[in-house]
Amino acid sequence: MMVAALLPLSGARVLEVGAGSGYMAAVLRAAGALEVVALELIPALAATARHNLSRAGVGTVEVRCQDGRRGAPDRAPFQAVVISAAAEAVPEALFEQVAEGGSVLAPLGGPEEQELVRLRRGGGGKWQGEKLGPCRFVPLLDWSILGDRGR
Q: How many angstroms separate the CA atoms of 63 and 28, rounded?
């Protein structure tokens, strides 16, 4: 459902926040994304994602171990941003990295109630939102969860 909400992806540069095992990055590439920048906060998960993507022969995916709330401004603009973890709101830095006509797909809400939301950036930087349905994701974490171990 998440990838379908972003179609068409042909030739798109996509930012994924919360790379986990690398599965979503692989699906995004298979759906036509030209390149994917996948951000993962937890070093062991970032390493797992790199390993899985390499083993599966999935190219043009860059996995970075960093706080996804900051995005990847050096690779922006992105035609799509997929957030694979729930937050109360989309981090402001991610909005700034979306190209005009691009989308952000995010599970929004707290631990008990979440809604999958698609936000589209129109002309003049105006955003339009659409609720796609209830969902359940792990929380979007930041560096404080790892302390000094993650830096």
A: 13
| φ, ψ (nearest 5 deg) of residue 2 | -65, -45
Q: Of 25, 23, 21, 41, whose CA–CA distance to 33 is shortest?
A: 25
Q: Do β-strands 98-109 and 61-65 pair in parallel, antiparallel, or remain unpaired?
A: unpaired
Tell me if 75 sits within 8 A of 99, measured CB to CB.
no
Closest listed residue to residue 83, CA positions, set 139, 29, 128: 139
The dihedral built from the CA positions of residue 125, 41, 60 and 108, taken in this order, carries a sign that is negative
Domains located in the chain, CATH noted: 11-136 (3.40.50.150)
Taking a C-beta distance cutoff of 8 angstroms, is the pair 102, 96 a contact?
no
What are 45-55's pLDDT values in tens digits?
999 999 999 99
pLDDT tens-place string over residues 36-73 = 999 999 999 999 999 999 999 999 999 999 999 999 99
Which pTM was predicted? 0.91
CA distance 44 to 2: 25
